[in-house]
């Protein structure tokens, strides 16, 4: 403050005053900031949500597909996967089969025939394999067989 | 003798750099974080490699629990009709709504079939199946 000089000679007040080091205790602030940091750390979500896109056909009209243009991926109630009725031991093998078949025949339609009692996880695993193969070959058409009674396949593609 | 010679030393650790770093971290979290939305149930999403990003806003979430209970926008659905009704009315208010099915990985596929059928009956032919993106290339 300028008023500090009042009442004394110029030089005296200078030397008479001690340099005051101002110390603000930052500890409470740091405490709060760390708490905030922990809060943001816990509540924030880094992983962005991802999804597999499904497009169902608009109409109920079944599309006729020649038998030769289809492969069937069947999942039974025990979550066993069959590729054209041949059991698949490892799900990650499916992509190889599919890529081979799709490069052979670009019009190939993959039919996913999943038993209603099978786990959704298995269906996603198989669908994932299909998507991986589709990324490789560009063949994106697949069909979800909706009901066992109805033979009309539900087309889908992503 | 020795006692007298020694002065009491106050140890002062300069916290300023630490505080600087913490504040920077705080700002970083503040800017980048998106809050986890509160959801009616905890769903264990299936893992998959393939998958596209879903926008964070304008998404209508359909949750399916492990035992097959359906929650549309965090509201439990009692019947299929109610579910279809909820979808149709939400679509009417916002036609650009993206539908996202978050189903538990252990749910029976039959439940998914009925949900997909209901979605189609409600006029939704494009939707997402939420997955937990597996990191890494295939």
Features:
heterodimer; A: 158 residues; Nucleotidyltransferase, domain 5; 8 strands; 22% strand; disordered N terminus; B: 138 residues; alpha/beta; 6-stranded mixed beta sheet; elongated
What does this structure look like?
Chain B: This is Biopolymer transporter ExbD. The complex is a heterodimer of chains A (158) and B (138). Chain A is an alpha/beta fold. Chain A has two domains: 2-43, no CATH class; 67-157, Nucleotidyltransferase, domain 5. Chain A has a six-stranded mixed beta sheet with strand order 5-4-3-6-7-8, covered by helices on one side. Chain A has helices at residues 10-16, 27-43, 94-104, 120-137; strands at residues 44-45, 50-55, 70-75, 81-83, 86-88, 109-114, 141-144, 154-157. Chain B is of the alpha/beta class. Chain B folds into two domains: 2-32, no CATH class; 47-133, Nucleotidyltransferase, domain 5 (2-Layer Sandwich). In chain B, a hairpin with a 5-residue loop joins strand 4 and strand 5 (70-72). The longest helix of chain B is centred in the N-terminal third of the chain and has 17 residues, at 16-32. The mean pLDDT of chain B is 83. Classes of the chains: A alpha/beta (158), B alpha/beta (138). Chains A and B meet through helix 2, strand 1, strand 2 and helix 4 of A and helix 2, strand 1, strand 2, strand 3 and helix 4 of B.
